[in-house]
Amino acid sequence: MNMLYEGEWRTDKFVANNEDGEFERQTTEFRNWVGEDERFPVEAGRYHLYICRACPWAHRTAMTRALKGLENAVSLSLVEPVRIDDGWEFSEDLPDPLYGEEFLRDIYLRADDEFTGRVTVPVLWDKQRETIVNNESREIMRMLDEAFAPLAEHDVDLNPDGYEEEVDRLIDEIYEPVNNGVYRAGFATTQEAYEEAVEELFDALDHWDEVLDDQRFLAGDVLTEADVAMFATLIRFDHVYHTTPITLPKVCDNVTDPLREKWKRIRDYENLYGYMRDVYQIDGIAKTVNMDHIVRHYGNGASPPGFGPYDLEEVDLQLGQPHGRDELSSKIFV
Ligand SMILES: N[C@@H](CCC(=O)N[C@@H](CS)C(=O)NCC(=O)O)C(=O)O
């Protein structure tokens, strides 16, 4: 994978798997907090989100912005869905609205011209100080939810009083097996690492399908940040992640797929499927989902060739179909 190394774009530096063949996600570099750090006060129009519609981590931040009604307070722009050798790129169709840069790495270099690390989305950018505030999706999601609340046009709290501990626990609980689990399965280069990731992923999905049998959302009766995190993985699952093991043995000679029968689609889960449609149908969410970008990203060499894509025509998730889950709880927010 490509990355910046002391300010230079390098294609030879980064190794994502450890010696056991397990995929290791790098930790992010910019971790400032709007509202808590006096350099970054809460101000309408001051901050910008760079995202990619294909990326599940970036999707969390776009969903939170939409649910809170922060579109007028925090601007947003997209990079092209296919990550090329030069990394994430802007284009004529999807230009960098702030500086007219060619690549997202140029934005990182504006923040730190000696930057070493991967050039990832999402990025929360401060237009006034001209630097990256934060590039960790979980933290950006929380900031949009809480620090930016005074600017929000919707009375929506995704980490409500009394739920805080549970929301953090849930976000932690689904991260390894589900959100990152699909990548641990897809990027594993040894049989052992692959099997462990697949077992954990489907044990977790089975578990949450059961939990969602008698509660509408992960934390109970209302939608929280944990659901935002879960949805971003589920919505990509049938089109992208589910296709991985079909081709994985062809990609990695040393990984075979005895666990194939374990792989279910979200459509095969009664409750997870209804839950995914439920979240999709909440005001503002559908427009954050760009299935075309999702499928193009995973199908065009941006990721290991084992990933997707399904033909969009072939897989119609029927996301607008009734879900009946309002019988479990009549409200969505506190
Ligand atoms: N921990 C980061 C991970 C973000 C991430 O890995 N984004 C991917 C896109 S899905 C990316 O930009 N990858 C580019 C790279 O790793 O070089 C977060 O949650 O914000």
UniProtKB/TrEMBL annotation:
Active-site residues, as the UniProt record annotates them: C55 (nucleophile), Y183 (proton donor/acceptor)
GO molecular function term, any single one: glutathione transferase activity
Domain of life where this protein originates: Archaea
Binding, glutathione: W88, R118, V119, T120, V121, E136, S137
Residues in GST C-terminal domain copies: 160-298
Listed InterPro entries: Glutathione-S-Trfase_C-like, Glutathione-S-Trfase_C_sf, Glutathione_S-Trfase, Glutathione_S-Trfase_N, GST_Omega-like_C, GST_Omega/GSH, Thioredoxin-like_sf
Gene3D superfamilies per UniProt: 1.20.1050.10, Glutaredoxin
Residues the UniProt record annotates as site (Lowers pKa of active site Cys): Y241, Y298
One GO cellular component, as annotated: cytoplasm
PROSITE patterns: GST_CTER
Protein name (Swiss-Prot/TrEMBL): Glutathione-dependent reductase
Species for this entry: Haloferax sulfurifontis
